[in-house]
Amino acid sequence: MQIDWLTVAAQIVNFLVLVWLLQRFLYRPITDAMARREERIESRLSEAKAAREEVEAEASRLREQQRALEDSREEVLGEARQEAAALRDRLEDDIREEMEARRATWQDHLQDEREAFAAQLQERAGRQVIEIVGRVLEDYVGSDLASQLAGTFADRLAGLEAEDRDKLKQAAAHAEGPARVQSSVALKTASRSQITRAIHETVAPEIEVEYAEDADLLVGVRLTIGEQTVDWSATRFLNRLETTLDEVIEGSGRHRPRPAPATD
Fold it and tell me: What UniProt keywords are attached to this protein's entry (predicted)?
């Protein structure tokens, strides 16, 4: 039997190629996968070991804490009893102080009521005085008084302070309407001419002046130019008297002494 060496050589080459292919694409990937698996297993075992040690350490710490709590339980209960006793004493003191404060407040309230009643009587008396003065002045308002009002107004207008006069002049320079003069009684032609002449000489020589009556004015005259107003009347002085009376009553109520709190 004759051996075909070419075929044998081809068979050997094919075998070697097969072995190389198996080594390259089958055996090595399998060994690599097994190695990686072993590494993961080792890593998980290490993590499990570390976790177990951590759990054992935590359990030991909790046991220590439990022993410490049991040892200090009596001490904690003693402190709680002391705090409860201190709280009871403090609440009793607070209740006692609150009762004292309420009693002092009640006494202050009674004092305030008495002083408020006295202040109300003073205020009512003052209001009646102002009302009586107003009625007396109304009774004396007449036609003879109208001419005197015009003369008094002209004198007061001429005697205005420089600052007030400047304000009226500025208002007249920017006013879109006439100057308005209101009086408590109807003014005659001569009185109106006197007032108009005083306004032209003191404030603005060309401004128009119109006249009207105002029942709220009591023995007086009011001049309005734009947003500026000046007036001389008994109403003005009565209002000032009323304001002063209010301030006196308010001040007496604010500054009256408080009674000292009662003590046992």
Answer: ATP synthesis, Cell membrane, CF(0), Coiled coil, Hydrogen ion transport, Ion transport, Membrane, Transmembrane, Transmembrane helix, Transport
